[in-house]
Amino acid sequence: MAASGDFAVVLRRLRESRSLTQEELAERAGLTAKAIGALERGERRRPYPHTVRSLADGLALGDDDRAALVAAVPGRDTTPRVGPTPPAALTLSSPASPSATQGTASPGSLPAPNGSRYAPAGPMTPCIGRDGELAELLAVISSGTRRLVTITGPGGVGKTRLAMEVLHLAAPDFPGGAQGVDLSAVREPTLVVPRIAAALGLPDAVGIEPLDALVPHLIGLRVLLVLDNLEQLTKAAPVLAGLVARCPDLVVVATSRAPLRVRAEHEFVLGPLTTPAADDVDAVASSPAVALLLDRAAAAGSPTVVTDADAPALAAIVRRLDGLPLAVELAAPGLRLLSPWALLTRLEQPGPGASLRDLPERHRTMAAVLEWSMDLLEPEEIALFERLAVLSGGFSLDSIEAVTEEGADVLPALGALVDQSLVLRAPSPDQQPRFRLLEPVRQFAMQRLHASGLATATADRHAAHFHARATASAALLDGPDLVAVLNRLDADHANLRSAYLRLLELDRDGDAAELAGSIWLYLALRGHAREGLAWLERIGPGASDVARCRALTGRLGLQLLAGDTVSMRSDAHVAVALAGRVAEPAVTCELLTLAGQAAVFAGALDDADELLARALVQAEAAGRRWVAVHTRLAQCQLALVANDLATAGLILPTVVRAAREIGNAFTLATALNVHATLTELLGDEPATATLLGEAVALSLAARMSWTLGYALPALASLAQRVGDPVSAAWLFGAGASISAADAVDPTFPVSRALSDRGLDATRAALGELRFTHAWDAGRAASDTEIQARAAVVTTRAGRGRSA
């Protein structure tokens, strides 16, 4: 194998022998001079296959020189392995540093969620036996002529794994960003585009078609999207084709069991891994399917080598599994307990899988592997496995207990399922363990659950559990544990959706309304407003008045987020009438507060005054301090709209103190924002800087786009007033990206007027070219960059204009 520095030497020698500068080679190869320099200095030691091909083409290499260049590329992993390594002309390796994905400002723009610019993390396991497919796919997507690529093939063939490897390796070639989008938990085709937007960090767009909201953020950017598990959403194919057509620099790679059947599609059919053509050691050792089997067996604690005695059995195992990667991976842990020959015998024994013979042949093999796993389980372990089928996405231990028999100790059975690789560990938002089923495994479990006759009862237990979780979360969303609750609800979102749909199926409209209404603040703060509004609009006439109060509360809250004042005012009239019939102040006080805010936003100040006064009395009587604080904040907004700055000045310091005592990040950030509006009107720049600086920090830490979308335009206006128009334009751009076309709280009339004046002054101070450059940079900023820029502005404003 070539030493790590050889590629740099060979590349430089070949370039200089053709009298080319780095810039000239970069132009011929379609790369950058910076990339060529990094390769020749040895800073990038493992170029990707498509990069090497581009260099060879740019240098017009003959066969010998081309082979020498390829041979100089160091391998991905020089650590000795137990078991064979599939041969490949070029071993693929990790991409450049995340900074390589940074692009220059362009007409379109994307935010950078979680402080990164879509630099996908490297896969945790090697992509064995797919070098040829990887090279072909990378060439297809880099050609520029095929921008909607669908990887098709049977379940378990490795479509997702291959797509994630493509995402990882191709990311440096997409300066606008590269993002994977998991659609396995999505069942409605209309949610595909909103899910893409959410994955890109864009807030939910309300009042505009999702596609129309997404396109402006992608135009002008070279972006790669990998859409995983699209087979249940093929009705969304025309929309995806339209997205690609409207975004000339966008490339979409999808995985699906069936092609999308649109004209723009390039289908890439992925077959199983190659199995040995013969039973001798060399043939078996060079088989990708056997390599995967041995790699996963080693990972499970059973290092296995290919010997003359075991080679025929290993070959027969992977043939029996048709080379399907998922089937191979599920079978591999069996080598911890069994010899290859014993494992083969277990796979070949007829068993319960006979009832699944009507499935496609490849799925029969998957079923055989899974049925064999069932044979290794105790009855209570099988019962638990089947019940887990109703859980979508990841799930916690208490959710597992909820869908099983009451009082059952699930830990021993769960441990067995984890050991058998039927249940996998999943990321957790806290210290509590979470688990998941691979989707093909979940489908298999669901078939067994239906056959057992327990599917209906288990689904009902699931719905009851997540209904209870949602309603219990409502009170926690009011308190100091807001962020932890938001993170847990994020992790349970797919299960909450399933529970909501199940409640509707059961005609339990009241419970469905209660579930959705209880978590409206989560839906608002974490970018699910559009879905939340859809849930709340489907509540039928069977809901009680109390349930309808909860649903209307959620609707008004989400409309407030979206700035949909027309719908808010209409629903507020219904809410007021409904609140008069419900004698539960703890329920109606929040509804009346939101109805009062709707009146404030609509300019109906007398109505607002009366409604907010009623809401405050009810909130205090019910002991709902969180609602009382937000009601007082709404009264401050009313005073600001009425230009009664004295009243607002009397109320706000007290309200901010109360918000700090409650310890709720949303409440405090909202109070700080409203107080900053007052100090801005009073011309107190140091106080405004302090308030907005804290609001931005709170909003970023808690991932609350609502309050951040309010704070950034105000901070931008402050930057303009203290003589920093570049930062002002930058912050206006960042705010526009987060707010998703003004669909957040800045529609409050007073703050909107202030930010509009600041925006006009900034544009005039910079001129259109400089303004656009700074605006685009802000729109592309990461959370870390926003925090740093906010600190610069607040520090300057705190020192006064002369700083």
UniProtKB/TrEMBL annotation:
PROSITE patterns: HTH_CROC1
SUPFAM superfamilies in alphabetical order: lambda repressor-like DNA-binding domains (SSF47413), P-loop containing nucleoside triphosphate hydrolases (SSF52540)
Positions of region (Disordered): 76-124
SMART domains (alphabetical): HTH_XRE (SM00530)
GO MF terms, alphabetically ordered: DNA binding
Compositional bias ranges of the Low complexity kind: 88-101
PANTHER family: HTH-TYPE TRANSCRIPTIONAL REGULATOR RV0890C-RELATED, REGULATOR-RELATED
Protein name: HTH cro/C1-type domain-containing protein
Species of provenance: Dactylosporangium siamense
Lineage: Bacteria, Bacillati, Actinomycetota, Actinomycetes, Micromonosporales
